């Protein structure tokens, strides 16, 4: 992993993505609060004429089961509101797992097939959950998992209740998520984390053993994973890392670089 700590991590991540924009055909998108400003920067760069989406295909990581596509808190509606409505992505190239389906298994298979048909994901943008999940890969999520139906953990229901008027009972209890293997197959990964609430899961993901108990830890095995952090999200990691070192080693002996962006 290449850990980068940046004072304005959204702008750093946007610049980093724009630099390699031409190499990205299929872009994987996360929802949640974390990437919202990053998407703001991408929209800005789109309006500046630096990037376009007309020749891109996007795939979202996950979707709540039981929410209609036009439900304001569905991930389809959320990513449309945060990014897609502003850019020239062709509707047929916009993919989100279905929230409503009468054949979940077939829908999951079809999603994997669509990713394969697009030539695989060139870049997944990822956030991290409070318990270390990526997408909705709740513990336990094995490294070989693929797109599937999952039960959301109590922690996830609690943290996502804020999107449902803080009413726990209104948070969907299940979701369709791409799997850990689906994520690891991407050519490049960008894990973005901000705020001190993410400091603990980030430190575990980077420095702990790879384990099904914390899906983000599997990212350690990827050859091209950038972990972009603001100072708050990096705080626990920096506490555990030897002072002044630019290389840190995980419990599994995997070496990660750590740099500070201006
Ligand atoms: C959600 C999503 C994840 C996201 C994470 C963190 O449950 N399924 O893709 O990365 O939780 O969300 P946030 O960025 O709002 O903290």
Molecular structure report:
The model has no long low-confidence stretch (mean pLDDT 97). The longest helix has 14 residues, at 104-117. Helix 2 links the parallel strand 2 and strand 3 (57-60). Helix 1 (9-19) crosses helix 2 and helix 7 packs across helix 8. The protein has 262 residues and is of the alpha/beta class. A 9-stranded mixed beta sheet has the order 5-3-2-6-9-10-1-12-11, with helices on both faces. A 3-stranded antiparallel beta sheet has the order 4-8-7. The two termini are 19 Å apart. The protein contains 8 helices and 12 strands. It has helices at residues 9-19, 36-47, 75-82, 104-117, 154-160, 180-184, 199-207, 231-240, and strands at residues 2-5, 26-29, 57-60, 62-64, 94-95, 123-126, 148-151, 174-177, 188-193, 225-229, 247-249, 255-260. Helix content is 29%, strand content 19%.
- Residues in helices, as a percent range: 25-40%
Order of helices and strands: EHEHEEHEHEEHEHEHEHEE
If you average the pLDDT, what whole number results? Answer: 97
How many helices? The count is: 8
Radius of gyration using CA atoms only: 17 Å
Q: Find the structural class using helix and strand composition.
A: alpha/beta
Small molecules held by this entry: 2-amino-2-deoxy-6-O-phosphono-alpha-D-glucopyranose
Amino-to-carboxy terminus distance: 19 Å
- Principal-axes geometry comes out as globular
Quaternary state reads: single chain
Q: In terms of per-residue confidence, which ranges show pLDDT below 50 for 5 or more consecutive residues?
A: none
Q: What is the makeup of the main sheet?
A: 9 strands, mixed
Strand content: 15-25%
Strand order of the largest sheet: 5-3-2-6-9-10-1-12-11
Tally of strands? 12
